[in-house]
Amino acid sequence: MSETTRTRRPRAALLIALPALGLLALLALAVVSGPESGCGNPFGCGSVRNAGDSDLTVVAFEADGTERATYAVAPGSRDPLLGVTNEITVPEASCLTVHGGPFWLDRVEVQTAGDTARVPIDHWGARVELQGGACPD
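Structure (tokenized):
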């Protein structure tokens, strides 16, 4: 092997590696310094899907706990979660079923009797069903 062949291989590797590293640096910079999302979470907002027959009331909170917004989610629709933390209001004498977590595999049922309750929804979002009366068995 001649000397010129040996010196070309490292140069070819550098010609591929340096642009790839530059691209990775640009992507990392975009993630780290990107504008804050509308909900305050670094990688965007979760969403709540209303799978029930009645409107849901979502209460969105800032990081310091102050209320940011209260809004309704119509049956059959999906809306973004606008707060850093979010809660769904469960009216009295109602059943709320929440499928949440990273892949919406966590299931929680909340039954209210005489008082209204609030159920926290994590930043992953959830599929939620609100119905009047007792929770089905």
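Residues 47-132 form one domain. The chain has two domains: 1-34, 47-132.
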